[in-house]
């Protein structure tokens, strides 16, 4: 343990030993993605999805006046929705793969908690994407994109579930030599 602390101070790394900076970057990316995709999980049937200039998704609620005009004005049509989903979820899937690869090498509880949070985010996204799919029943290209994202999220959930089910053995607390 002292050797690991000393090596960390000196900036040395070993294969399989995750670094504090790497975890912070992954946690920051999780926070960013959960903020970006928050509205997707809250979509209701008939709501339209849009993305602002900072990359955060928002929704146009069904039944509000001038939704079509507003979507046209802000350039948030169906083709833009397809492009935005493709761009953002391609990056998100690479991030999920990175987390899965790290979980192959470590049982660190911080990474396991991050994996659990990502699994919850994936559940929320799948619900919202399925609802979005119902909003565009005639758009075959968009439906195929949404289906491919949902399938990738299901694959991630299966993989992360296998990683999180591994039980970490916790030994009984060792008694000190001269204690009563």
List the helices and strands and how they pair.
Layout: H1 2-10, H2 20-36, H3 38-41, E1 48-51, E2 57-60, H4 67-73, H5 78-105, H6 109-135, H7 140-165
Antiparallel strand pairs: 1-2
Please describe what this structure looks like.
Helix 5 (78-105) packs antiparallel against helix 6 (109-135), helix 5 packs parallel to helix 7 (140-165) and helix 6 (109-135) packs antiparallel against helix 7. The protein is built from seven helices and two strands; from the N terminus they run αααββαααα. 17% of the residues are buried. The protein has 180 residues and is mainly α. A two-stranded antiparallel ribbon has the order 1-2. The chain has one domain (19-163). Strand 1 and strand 2 (57-60) form a beta hairpin. It has helices spanning 2-10, 20-36, 38-41, 67-73, 78-105, 109-135, 140-165; strands spanning 48-51, 57-60.
Number of beta strands: 2
Low-confidence stretches: none
Structural class: mainly alpha
**Beta-strand residue fraction:** under 5%
Note the run of SSEs as H and E: HHHEEHHHH
Domains (count)? 1
The order of strands across the largest sheet is 1-2
Distance between the termini: 27 Å
Mean pLDDT: 80
Report the major sheet: 2 strands, antiparallel
How many DSSP H or I helices? 7
Helix content: 55-70%
Radius of gyration of CA atoms, rounded to a whole number = 21 Å
Basic shape: elongated
